């Protein structure tokens, strides 16, 4: 008979990390000077120096775990360029760029497009519809979960399927605090031919129908609490075992440990003032 402790041990042995390659942008010009999400308040003091320190600690955490981190040069006047995940989705070497809803961020899309071309990517597609990339697109290894409701246009989901050649499942976001999919859901383990994908998410961020879809697709998902979501705990990055996560997300961190993951809590207090955390700062370069 399998006991609860045996199940935990089995779970621990099943969590296998895979080496990843990420694209990041130093927040050298980070500030909060406009409002495009509920987290942003230009009247709140912001320390660019502290933001750089927090970003650097995050980058060093990835590197200590064996991952490769590429960087793009930040541009003055684009304070949100640090959130690289919003500017591209890469699967099997195919790149789908971004088209931002907010005009303050529109210039970022072409800067990242040029980075991909300079880095040798040749299959680069720019969307015609608003598409905020990995902010609203999460690859599970089998399907692309695609958020909509506040930023990414629903029609961009069909463009993503065509450009990336992977099946897409649309998910409806309903809470303006969780305006992107990546602040409401994280893929912890990608699917393989012998293993199902594993995710964590905050149910109340999604419409009732979407909640039913997620429960059907991921019956063993970790369900985050209000407190987990409110500190951007779901804006995390996982390599299949190691999870870089906001340090305040104590409930989710405990759940991750119980499910065999190794959390790596980081301080994102300054970056969070613009509505971002580890995932926002980290675009994965797959293939």
Structure in words:
It is a single chain. The chain is of the alpha/beta class. The protein has one domain (15-284): L-arginine/glycine Amidinotransferase, Chain A, CATH 3.75.10.10. The protein has helices at residues 4-14, 48-64, 106-118, 155-164, 208-217, 226-230, 250-258; strands at residues 21-24, 68-71, 89-91, 94-96, 124-125, 137-139, 144-148, 168-172, 185-189, 198-201, 222-223, 237-238, 242-246, 262-266, 283-284. The strands form five sheets. A three-stranded mixed β-sheet has the order 2-1-15, with helices on one face. Strands 3-4-5 form a three-stranded mixed β-sheet, with helices on both faces. It has a three-stranded mixed β-sheet with strand order 6-7-8. The longest helix is centred in the first third of the chain and has 17 residues, at 48-64.
**Mean pLDDT value:** 95
Spatial strand arrangement across the major sheet: 2-1-15
Q: How far apart are the first and last residues' alpha carbons, in Å?
A: 42 Å
CATH class: Alpha Beta
**Rg computed from alpha carbons, rounded to a whole number of angstroms:** 18 Å
Spans of at least 5 consecutive residues whose pLDDT stays below 50 are: 1-12
Q: SS-based structural class?
A: alpha/beta
Order of helices and strands: HEHEEEHEEEHEEEHEHEEHEE
What CATH architecture would you give? 5-stranded Propeller
**Outline, from the CA principal axes?**
globular
CATH topology: L-arginine/glycine Amidinotransferase, Chain A
Strand content: 15-25%
Number of strands: 15
Task: Domain count, please report it.
Answer: 1
By CATH's scheme, which homologous superfamily applies?
L-arginine/glycine Amidinotransferase, Chain A
Query: What is the percent of helical residues?
Result: 25-40%
Helix count equals 7
Largest sheet: 3 strands, mixed
Protein name: Dimethylargininase
GO molecular function: dimethylargininase activity
EC number: 3.5.3.18
Keywords: Hydrolase
